[in-house]
Amino acid sequence: MESKEKRLHIAFLSTYPPRECGIATFTQDLVRELKKKDNLKTSVIAISDGKYSYDGDVLFDFPQQNCTSYLKAAERINASDIDFLVVEHEYGIYGGNWGDYLLELAKRVKKPIISTLHTILPDPSEKQREVLRELCRRSKKVVTMASNSCRILEEAYGVDSSKIVMIPHGVPSFDLPPREALKKELHLEGRTVISTFGLISPGKGLEYGIEAIAQVVQKHPDVLYFILGQTHPVVRKQYGESYRESLEKKVREFGLENNVRFVNKYLTKEEIVRGLQLSDIYMTPYLNRDQAVSGTLAYAAGYGRVIVSTPYLYAEEMLADGRGLLADFKDSRSLGEAINLLIEHPEKRKEMEAKTLCFGKTMRWDAVADRYATTFRQTRQEACERSEAEHERLKIAE
Hints:
Number of domains: 2
Mean pLDDT: 93
Number of helices: 15
Shape: globular
CATH superfamily of the largest domain: Glycogen Phosphorylase B
Low-confidence stretches: none
Order of helices and strands: EHEEHEHEHEHEHEHEHHEHEHEHEHHH
Radius of gyration: 23 Å
């Protein structure tokens, strides 16, 4: 039987920086942390939607919308020294009908697959169900980032519970000045800072966030709402900046020029964390009830921010046990009332911060990478034990 301590080569099939994509950033962060493990070697096979200049982590890349490239990629993986292929799954980053080109690769790859699922829909279309079910069937382990998704995987997709592993979304660690020092640095002393960050798209519901701020400023004119991040590249390519422009128009209509600021750029991780560290309240007015994971919400929880959110699946789990407040979907009044409650009860806000920070520490990337490394080793050990058991069965049969 092979030693558990054998150095494993883990390859990640994913988007990767400089492609601007949340999953690309996620994979880069995880790879960076796993590199610190003595018994692991990591590399990336990048899914590309254009021409990028990748760093040395990338073994090779291939075009997202070329089906033949998936077959060739499988051949290269099979001919390599890769021990595990980790598939970062999101329907939109693979070609075909709901990303079904990925299945052509999965059918041909002879290396064991571990799949990390970034979207798990509780009520999928038939094609969505087919794609995810087949990927999970061909995976040795299936990683989900929220406990509430485990039941969905079993009931909606028929995934064997013994395959499912829950590992939270990772959060980077930065040593930054405290909130009040950052406010002083930016001349924001005495202001209540609320923020939302991430790639901007209509599904984020930011119009309701702005309308909520319009209500809040009637009682608390010192409030400042930062909307941090550029328009999602796919949205920008299809629709230009029409959504952002509609948000800016709404700010003018409500006379909120002194209370809402846009930072229109692709944020570095340190810029994201500085924005969170600066904030008194973090808001996600998202519209999709079925959203199983949110990297932005994970970051906010990881840094102990008090969160006001609509009750999508991931938010319900993250904000349980008094770690934030849930407001109704598409309801600016409900959002505004939650914000006002937190502003007017600083002792309640402080209590929530403490609970969220305690919970969030378990999501720092060092802890998350440890859990992935354990999953890799356990999966290899299980494979060795199955092989040994099969060998013994054959000897007895002889």
